[in-house]
């Protein structure tokens, strides 16, 4: 009788072990699903943030990341460099002429100097003079506005957008 009970207990222990393994196998996809749902929530939050910005401002443009720039030519230069970086002054002036109708290299040079001093653009030497790009800090701020990266602890960023 005791032997029968021991055999029954062993069989029961084996069955419980099999059940535990089966439960572990079944729970693995649910863990992945929870991860996917979390990612979906992040994407949805970003999407609704974009919709909110679009509703509030009527458009989405990089100038939202740098509201301190009020000059329309500087705003256009930033737009041109966001569309395609690595341009020299002549190329930027040409792109501005296509957008605005007029643009002088002298004005573009002055605006670029101001934008560079504010950390909005960076320059590097190229075969045809200095080549300008949007700075990493400005790209990061734009990514924050879009909700693609977590906002930095920079004070006053949200107030500037509202």
Description:
A two-stranded antiparallel sheet has the order 1-2. It folds into two domains: 1-59; 63-139, Winged helix-like DNA-binding domain superfamily/Winged helix DNA-binding domain (Arc Repressor Mutant, subunit A, Orthogonal Bundle). It is mainly alpha-helical and 162 residues long. It is rod-shaped, with a radius of gyration of 29 Å. The protein has helices spanning 2-57, 72-83, 89-100, 105-117, 136-146, 157-161; strands at 121-126, 129-134. The relative contact order is 0.10.
- Can you tell me the residue ranges where pLDDT is under 50 for at least 5 consecutive residues? 155-162
Name the overall outline.
Answer: rod-shaped
Strand content: 5-15%
For the record, the count of structural domains works out to 2
Please tell me the CATH architecture of the largest domain by its name. Answer: Orthogonal Bundle
The average pLDDT is 84
Structural class: mainly alpha
Order of helices and strands: HHHHEEHH
The order of strands across the largest sheet is 1-2
Classify the helix fraction into a percent range: 55-70%
Count the helices. How many?
A: 6
Which value, in Å, is the CA radius of gyration?
A: 29 Å
Could you describe the largest sheet, including whether it forms a barrel?
2 strands, antiparallel
Name the CATH homologous superfamily of the largest domain. Answer: Winged helix-like DNA-binding domain superfamily/Winged helix DNA-binding domain
């Amino acid at each position: 009788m005791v032997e029968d009970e021991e055999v029954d207990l062993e069989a029961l222990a084996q069955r419980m072990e099999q059940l535990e393994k089966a439960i572990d196998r079944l729970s693995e996809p649910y863990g992945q699903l929870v991860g996917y749902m979390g990612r979906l929530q992040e994407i949805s939050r970003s999407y609704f943030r974009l919709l909110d910005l679009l509703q509030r401002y009527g458009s989405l443009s990089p100038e939202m990341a740098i509201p301190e720039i009020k000059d329309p030519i500087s705003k256009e230069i930033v737009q041109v460099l966001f569309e395609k970086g690595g341009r020299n002054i002549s190329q930027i002036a040409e792109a501005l002429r296509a957008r605005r109708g007029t643009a002088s290299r002298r004005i573009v040079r002055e605006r670029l100097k101001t934008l560079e001093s504010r950390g909005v653009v960076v320059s590097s030497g190229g075969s045809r003079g200095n080549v300008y790009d949007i700075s990493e800090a400005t790209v990061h701020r734009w990514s924050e506005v879009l909700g693609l990266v977590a906002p930095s602890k920079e004070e006053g960023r949200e107030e500037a957008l509202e």
